[in-house]
Amino acid sequence: MTARVHKLINQPENLVDEMLAGFCAAYSDIARLVDKRLVMRAQPKAPGKVGLVIGCGSGHEPAMTGWIGEGLFDVNIAGEIFAAPGPELMVKGIRAADRGGGVLICVSHHAGDLLNAELALELCQAEGIDNVDMVVLYDDISSAPKGREPERRGTAGLFFVWKMLGAFCEGDGDLAAAKALAEKARDNTRSLAMSLSSCASPVTGEVMFEMAPDEMEIGMGLHGEVGMGRQKALGADETIDLMLPPLLEDLPFQAGDEVLVLLNNSGSLTLMELFVLYRRAAAKLAEADIKVYKSWIGAYATTQEMAGFALSLCRVDEQMKALWDAPANGAYMKQL
Q1: Environment class of residue 242 by beta-carbon count within 10 Å: exposed (0-12), middle (13-18) or buried (19+)?
Q2: 6, 60, 109, 110: which is the annotated catalytic residue?
C-alpha cells in the first residue's frame, strides 16, 4: 500500500494560486501578484535595464518567488507542482519584465522547462517581441559526466547565478553581457545532492518513492531523479568525505581558489545537522587550500519535506565577489 501524508492545504487545484497569494500578502513591499501566476517585484527597476524572468514548477519554495525583488529577478512565472509553466504564460511574463533593455529568460535545465522556454521564444518572434534571449543553467555533476556539462540538470547551485545576475542587471550592461555573466557563473558552479528520504506530493499526498530507513542516495535530483545509486547511510563526516572530492575534481577546483559555498536543505534536515555537515566541508576545503569567501546554509530550493541536502561550490573572481556582495532585497535573499 502506498504511503500517504496529510498536508495543511485546501483544494489541491487551488494550491499554487493560494500559495502565491499568501506569499505576496506577506511580502507586499517586495513582490506583487499580477495576472494569475506572475509574481513581479513591487518596485520595477529603472527604464532601460535588462529584465530577468524565470519560470519553474512550484513545490520548491522559497524558489523561485523568494528571488523576486531589487537586485534579483523581475518576474517569476509559476507552474503547477513540479511542472514548468506553459509558453503563453511565459510570454506574459516576458512582457511584464520588459523595461526597454531586453529580457533574459533563465532556464533551469530540465526537459519541460527548456521546451516551454524555447516555445515562448518562438511566440515572441512571431509576435514581434524583439531583444529577448535565454540562458540555460545547470550544475548537477551526478546527471551527466564531465565533458557533457550542458546535459546536466539545474539544481540548488543556480542560487549563485541568480544572485550575481540580478546584481549585474541593476547596472548598465546589455542583454548579451547579462547572458555572458550568467554563463560565467554557471560554468564556475558545481553541485551534488544526497537524500535520506522521499517527500509526498502536495497534490495527492502520496510519497514519491520509497527508501529504507538505513539507506541514502547520492546525486538525487530536485524531483527525485535517480542519482549515482543507493548505499548504506553514513554519518555526517563520512557523507561530506564522499561528496566533496568528486565536486572538487569536476571543475576542477584548485589550491588558491576562492569559493562561495551553499549547503541547501532539501526540506526537512535540521539546522543542527546542516552545521555539523558544514563544519566538515569547511575543514576539508581548508585542507585543500581553498578559501571560502562566503557561505549560505538553509532551505533555498526545496523538494517539499525531502530529507537531504545539496552541497554547491562556485569559484569566484573579483567581479563575481562584487556582484555577490551587491544589495539585494528578496523575501529570502536580503542584502548580504
Answers
A1: middle
A2: 60
244 residue type, one letter: L
In angstroms, how far is CA 233 from the centroid of its own chain? 26
Please pick, among 6, 109, 110, 223, the residue that the annotation labels catalytic. Answer: 223
What DSSP letter does each residue of 184-201 carry, written as one string?
HHHHTEEEEEEESS--B-
**Quick one: pLDDT at residue 334?**
63
CATH topology of domain 189-325: Hypothetical Protein Tm841; Chain: A;domain 3 (3.30.1180)
Check if 109 is active-site: no
Domain ranges for the chain, please list them. Answer: 12-187, 189-325
Residue whose C-alpha cell is 487545484: 13
Query: Any idea which residue has 517581441 for its cell?
Result: 129
How many residues can be counted in the chain? Answer: 336
Give the whole-angstrom CA distance, residue 160 versus residue 9: 32
Q: What whole-number distance in Å separates Cα of residue 185 and Cα of residue 224?
A: 25
- Positive or negative torsion for Cα 315, 319, 320, 324: positive
How far apart are alpha carbons 41 and 61 in whole angstroms? 17
Q: What is the DSSP letter of 211?
A: -
- The three grid cell numbers given for residue 224, joined into one nine-digit string: 527525485
pLDDT in tens, 5-28: 789 999 999 999 999 999 999 999
pLDDT in tens, 81-90: 999 999 999 9
pLDDT at 1 exceeding the cut of 60: no
Residue 253: strand, helix, or coil:
coil
Report pTM.
Answer: 0.94
Name the 3-class secondary structure at 298: strand
Q: Residues with Cβ < 8 Å from 318, sequence gap 6 or more? A: none
CATH number assigned to the domain with residue range 12-187, chosen from the 4 options 3.60.140.10, 1.10.443.10, 3.40.50.10440, 1.10.357.10: 3.40.50.10440
Q: Answer yes or no: 223 catalytic.
A: yes
CA angle 192, 196, 201 (to 5 degrees): 95
